Amino acid sequence: MKLKKIYWTTNLSKKRKIVISSIFLFTIVACSIGITLFTQFGISVSLEQNYSWNDGPWLTWDANPKSSVVVNWLSEDKIKGKITYSMDSNFNNQIYVEKENFESHLHHIKLNNLEPNTRYYYKIEQEFHNYEESHVFSFVTAPAYLSVDFKFCIVGDMQPTDSRTQEAGRIVALGIANESPNFILQLGDICSSGGSGTLWHNVLQNIPLFASESVFQSVVGNHDYEGESAENYHNLFKYNYETSNANYYSFNYGNVHFTMIDNFDAEGHSMTQIQKQWVVQDITNAKSIGQKWIFICFHHTILTTGTSSQNWELQKWLIPIADRYDVDGVFFGHDHHYEHWSYIYGNSGLLYNETDLPSGNETHYWCSGGGGAHLEVDYGVLDHQPFIDIRQFYNISASEYQDITIERRHWNASRFVDNPQNEIYAEDENHHLYYHAPDLESYSDDNEIYGYSYGEQALHYILVEISNNGNTCTISARYPNGAILMGPNNNYPQLWIFNK
């Protein structure tokens, strides 16, 4: 999320000059120091060529969730990856799969021709950070039919950089694992700097806690781009990208369609026109084949009352699209907290473009950035100076474009949820779950325009449950212990039930 810089120091100024008679010894020492700096202290590395730990595994999809899955992991040594898998937990009918004929630190093995809605067991002859050698994992393939019941979790910014965020991410990961979801959606900024081997190691100590048995589908964040233009991200997560060089893609599971956007494939935190055209066509195609529920996922703050700026260009482009195509939910991260909006485009009498024809449909937007990274409290959400934005809307009643000044103020530190059971998830030295309920006190002038309903500074994830033969969708925001965010005096339950 934040462009908060991390500085690594080696105290070189205090080192004395030493004359070493042996050039050979000097070369060895210099190379050793160089490799250590290269792999340990955030300087960009290719994880395929340089890695120092056994981390994983995590599951992803390539093309068809019904009949294939990809098993991924990293190894300390360059080796040929191999696994065994079976429909039998005793591996009586095991199948052995070996990677292509080359050695690497990064391994992807695609399991093909699997049966739909079937549990498979697999093991890797490698000892991982969280698991002993030959630990048995399992996963379930997607069902063959559209009208099925399933559930998935959504989690945002992780970015473990220190012991505090490492433990926070572990708490959230274990909470997600306890849900036993069919898969997980991650909203970007998985790593704090995409070029750092050490920081990816931090990430991959937590992700396998849920992603070794539930497929992990993510979008790329600005921090994942840092260091090497998202090359490590792209190589770690081999999704069915629209092109070999892209980081955007889509997939179906049951009667739900997911459009996974890259906010950063053009300069200045923007998107290429090619990707924008693809998004519209992708949603159109999904609706044409009968996908009942449409969800869009990306990283950047299209809406926020936190410390980041709203991505105005993204807003002007995507909100009318979400309205026009009756998108059911938009999920994003970037700001490290939880927020929800229920936006009926045009109801306020304001449009982005005078040619837009609002549908009257309600679109829900969720910011879910509580995956373990430092919460907005650490970025000044309680004490920053007012942010002033001047935005141009088309005023329907006046039939003209008007500049509207929007002031965004800091959250009130005296407003926090009194909930001792969940205060551990505040990740704040005061253990306060600070909240923003605009009917009590509104911190931003545009809350009424966008239908802002509630926000909270808390570690959390979002649970989405598809039930009633695919006709009901229940969405809830939850603390890592599974409890629903309820707000002060339980007056703001973050739970919605939609029927089609």
Describe the structure.
The chain is an alpha+beta fold and 500 residues long. It has 9 helices and 25 strands. The protein folds into 2 domains: 55-140, Immunoglobulin-like, CATH 2.60.40; 150-499, Metallo-dependent phosphatases (Purple Acid Phosphatase, chain A, domain 2, 4-Layer Sandwich). The strands form 5 sheets. A 9-stranded mixed sheet has the order 11-12-13-14-17-15-22-21-20. Strands 10-9-8-23-24-25 form a 6-stranded mixed sheet, covered by helices on one side. It is globular and about 70 Å long.
Descriptive tags:
500 residues; alpha+beta; Immunoglobulin-like; Purple Acid Phosphatase, chain A, domain 2; 2 domains; nine-stranded mixed beta sheet; six-stranded mixed beta sheet; 9 helices; 18% helix; globular
Figure out the total of helices: 9
Average predicted local confidence, pLDDT: 90
Strand order of the largest sheet: 11-12-13-14-17-15-22-21-20
Poorly predicted parts: 3-41
CATH topology of the largest domain: Purple Acid Phosphatase, chain A, domain 2
What summary fits the major beta sheet? 9 strands, mixed
The CATH superfamily of the largest domain is known as Metallo-dependent phosphatases
What Rg, in angstroms, do the CA atoms define? 24 Å
Query: Pairing-aware structural class of the strands and helices?
Result: alpha+beta
Tell me the fraction of residues in β-strands, as a range. Answer: 25-35%
Helicity level, as a percent range?
Answer: 10-25%
Identify the CATH class of the largest domain.
Answer: Alpha Beta
The CATH architecture name of the largest domain reads: 4-Layer Sandwich
Number of domains: 2
